[in-house]
Amino acid sequence: MTCNLNSLRLLLVALAAAVPSCAWRADSVSYDPDLAHYQELATQIEFPDVESESYPEVAVGSPAPITIDNAAPTEYWDLSLDEAIQTALQHSRVLRDLGGLVLESPENVRTVHDPAIQETDPRFGVEAALSAFDAELESSFFFENNDRALNNVFFGGGTRLLKQDLHAYRTAISKRAATGGDFTVRKIIDYDLNNSPGNDDPNRPWTVQLEGEFRQPLMQGAGVDFNRIAGPGGAPGSMNGVLIARLNTDISLTEFEASVRNLVNDVENAYWELHFAYRDLDAKIAARDRALQTWRKINSWYVSHRRGGEIEREAQAREQYFRMEEDVQNALTGRTVDRFRTNTFRGHGGVHQAERRLRLLMGTVMNDGRLIRPTEEPLMAKIVFNWEDILVESLTRRAEIRRQKWRVESTVLELAATRNFLLPRIDAVGRYRWRGLGHDLVNSERQAARFDNAFQDLTSGDFQEWQLGLEVALPIGFRKAHAAVRNAELKVARAKAILEQQERDVVHDLTAAFAELDRAYATSQTSYNRRVAAHEQLQALDHKYEDADENERTRLLDLLLDAQRRVADADSNYYRAILEYTLAIKNVHLQKGSLLDYNEIYLAEGPWPGKAYDDAARRNNTQIDIPPFLQRILQMPMPVSRGPYGQRSNASESPESVEPLERHPAVEDGVPVEPGGEPLPAPANDTEDGQASDQGNETAVDEETINPATDSLQPLQ
Questions:
Q1: At a CB cut-off of 8 Å and minimum separation 6, what does 186 contact?
Q2: What is the C-alpha R_g of the chain?
Q3: N or C: which end of the chain has fewer CB within 10 A?
Q4: What is the pLDDT at residue 30?
Q5: Average model confidence (pLDDT) for the chain?
Q6: Is the pLDDT of residue 573 over 50?
């Protein structure tokens, strides 16, 4: 015994020495060259092996961009706003933005494929939800050969050595109804040939069964509404019925509409930014040329040692010129700025940078030797919107509001379906079966002998069975169902709270855009008056400076240089003001949801196949009156939409009484006067017949206070 204990102790010590310690360290493991690849290179950054065609601009190459050293384009591309928007829409499979979203977060980028992707989603799409109601065919065929010795002669049918050929054929067609019921037609064929002494002589191994079966929920899971919302097999928190899938598609469509609207908005912003860049460049070139003339004149006096050409005066004029030259260079090329989307007019990008931004949105080649030049002029007529009309219109037509209303509708439907789970599960079950037994499965000639073939026996109708009953199942307390209902109620409350806040934000943004419109119009008038005064001051100082003696010129030089700067600032601010007013009109349409209409862009869905319309009409004509006791199960589905959304419709009108918006005639307005009482000179108006018209709830008013820049844009010097 002692020897055995000592041997056991030695064995335990040996095992303890062989087992690694729990305090294992990586550096205690010997280096294995075969694992070097995994230890050093398994997580290295590699290039994907993906074959895809590059964008033609990248694959073929493009000319070098136009820069400050190469500022002369081969030609100009005179482009209208309509052409810019049309080009952007034609080239935008990916709906671009100026925030760099396609690089930073490509999964959030909208494309023209998104609505179709949502529609065809194999899990949550409409077709996937409808497929749950498709008829299903199931078949199975099994063959067995058994050869076994049995301990009990009873189970062998009188023999202990059982030999058996066993076949089983199953074929069934099942269909899920919109009411939640399952209907099945099934054929069962069994072949059992064995050596049991208890079998009839002759042996009749074929058995045929033809049965029909139904299972119809009476409370939980019953009803057309529930099955259209939750879908067959729907559970609390997991619903994907036809209605939910269709609402998801509608949400996807509104998101697509909003993306198209944002693209159009960005294109219009970029177009007018480029327009301002040209005008700003013209103003700065004119200011630089005036500064150059002044510097040259003073420099000639400096060289000839005349009074008024002192070295400090010459340096002051030279500094003015180079300041203006720097402004021209920046106005030509622009400074690099971060990419971001905004509706606020910036006006500091420069011609080249603004042109590149517009090309990016239009989807054209970035560098082709040409320089885009806008041909349209900003709108100068006064536009008056009716606040009550555009307020109602914004709360109806904004894509964000309609998207959230679809989400509210989705949560309301889910709540209605979730309440169904508070009911007990009571299913009515029925089955009717015909049976047949025979020596053969089928015989082409009908035999008088009984049980000659199974199908003959089946069609005789001698053996029929039926079953009818109820199945009841309910959890005690319905804890999960009550939690699901409470959760669905909270989701409805959350969706409605978000909708309320969205409406408040829409009203806030519309209010700001409405006020901005009046501010931009008023400041454009003020900017014009300032511009006129600045030019008059500069002209007067030029005459005084030319006619002044040498002592007076020294005193007037500071005023002259300051007046030149004031004229440059006044010209630039004037062009900025009229562009701000044009964009303010656009922003009102953006906030009230009519920007696409404003640019005459309309979204439409392709037609359905002709048979779909025929089927819909046939189903509508075959509706029958439902008995009251079956209305809960067979009732007509509740409506979830008021019909198609018409882009041309007024918000205050019902979808049934939609009429195209008419253009309002122009109305004459008064002419502002200067502080001295004299009316301002009437500048030219670039609108046809002195009027500007627009779609929507607005009125165009002639205004003679603003002097639009009607001259065409000139090539860069």
A1: 170, 171, 172, 173, 209, 210, 211, 212, 213
A2: 42
A3: N
A4: 58
A5: 79
A6: yes
Q: What is the CATH number of the domain that holds 587?
A: 1.20.1460
Domain range for 688: 382-386+503-600+661-701
* Stated pTM of the model: 0.76
Mean pLDDT, rounded, for 231-244: 87
Q: Do 665 and 567 sit in the same domain of this protein?
A: yes
Q: Would the pLDDT of 632 be above 60?
A: no
Shared domain for 164 and 211, answered yes or no, is yes
Higher pLDDT, 262 or 611: 262
Q: Is the pLDDT of residue 214 over 60?
A: yes
* CA diameter of the chain: 145
> How confident is the model at residue 622, as a pLDDT?
67
User: What residues have CB less than 8 Å from 266, skipping those under 6 apart?
Assistant: 96, 97, 98, 341, 361
DSSP state letters, 311-351: HHHHHHHHHHHHHHHHHHHHHHH---------SS----S-H
User: Distance between CA atoms of 21 and 622, rounded to whole angstroms?
Assistant: 80
Cα torsion at 543, 545, 546, 552 (round to 10°)? 130
Angle at 68 (CA atoms; ends 67, 73), nearest 5 degrees: 60
Same domain, 589 and 467: no
Does residue 613 register a pLDDT over 90?
no
Q: Specify whether 354 is located in the same domain as 267.
A: yes
Separation of alpha carbons 705 and 681, rounded Å: 8
